[in-house]
Amino acid sequence: MFAAWFPSRTVALYLARTFLVRSAVVLAGLVLILQTLDLLGESGHILEYPGNGDREVWRYVSLRTPQIIANFLPFSVLLGTIIALSQLNANSEVIAMKSAGLSAHQVLAPLILAAFGVALLSFAFNDRVVSRASATLDQWKKISYAPLPMDRGDRVNVWVRDGDDLLSVRKVSGRGNAAQLRDVTFYDRDNGTLMAIIRVPRGVHAGDGWRIGPAQRFDVATGTVANLGTITISRGVRPDQFTLSSVNADGLSFGALSRAIDDLRDAGRPTKSLEGSLWHKLSGPLSSILMPLLGAVAAFGLARSGKLFIRAVLGMLLGFLYFMADNFALALGNLGVYPPMLAAWGPFFLFLLIGEVVLVRTEE
After folding, report:
1. Alpha helix (H) ranges present in the chain?
2. 136-182 pLDDT per residue, tens
3. 164-165-171 Cα angle (round to 5)
4. Is 321 left (phi over 0), alpha (psi -120 to 50) or beta?
5. C-alpha distance across the termini of the chain, in Å
6. What pLDDT, in 10s, does the model give residues 284-333?
7. pLDDT by residue (tens digit) across 8-27?
8. Rounded to whole angstroms, how far apart are CA atoms 363 and 301?
């Protein structure tokens, strides 16, 4: 079977190398341009915090670059495919391979195999690097680029509703009954009207509520401040409402997100949107395998017919349509309109079928 799909080792290596080199060059160019534009818009916010300088700017670059690579890697593979196949077609190399007896699928097989390797690397990169960078950058943005807590597992700027009251916590450490609250602000409201604001430096779970102290209460009506010492508030608010209230799917690895979904499910919380994001962590990197198939329309047909440019544009259009459909399906999955599996895998298999149909109709 291997010999049937790759009858010539030399041709297979040549095609794979041509495809990978052009994809890498496109990716490097996109990352350089997009990171520069992003930094121009964000550097002012970074330097706005007192004490921030070049070190913090470069730290932002180190955290943002993995996100850009992850987002635009499939697009780079698409452009790399179109550029490589267009050059092969323009130089009549595709004609030579077909004259030697290779079918369209045999010409594309080395590219698809190389794209599969790219997909594996992309998944590992996203799981080990991008998730950590996204989690750190998200926390850093929430505190306006101030110094980050040492424990990256902490949750910052968490809001929880307790009936009509609101509870704001700057940092939550630990899980379950061992959760600890730091810089707590309790907004005491009555029918939507703010009655008082209670501020405390720390709080812990105690019984069915939260013991906080030393508390300082500001009465909105009188404008007076009173010291309350240690008090108990928010009876009935569970620890998971703090630790699981803001699960960032992009900031968690595949395994960590799966465990968070299990915790939410055990707590009786909705998980459909997170399940879609979980499966998309697999379907997203695998989209690189589709790109040689969607861009293959640029490889076949006579270059001298004058339609090579049109074929290349058609390949780009198919790729853009896939990315639009993928984002649209994921958005509908987050809203609960699509089931998680359909939202994550539906566009992948749809465009796999479309790519095969286009390839067969134009060449086979």
Report:
1. 2-5, 9-48, 54-90, 93-99, 104-125, 131-142, 240-243, 254-266, 272-294, 308-334, 340-362
2. 898 888 888 988 765 545 677 777 878 888 888 888 877 777 788 88
3. 145
4. alpha
5. 20
6. 999 999 999 888 887 775 545 557 777 788 888 988 999 999 999 999 88
7. 888 889 999 999 999 999 99
8. 8
Question: Looking at the whole model, is its pTM more than 0.85?
Answer: no
Written as one letter, the residue type at 108 is L
What are the tokens at 305?
A: 């017919």
- Is residue 45 a contact partner of residue 100, using CB atoms and an 8 Å limit? no
CB 104 within 8 A of CB 85: no
- Residue 278 and residue 258 in contact, taking contact as beta carbons nearer than 8 Å: yes
CA distance 291 to 313: 14
How far apart, in whole angstroms, are the C-alpha atoms of residue 206 and residue 208?
A: 6
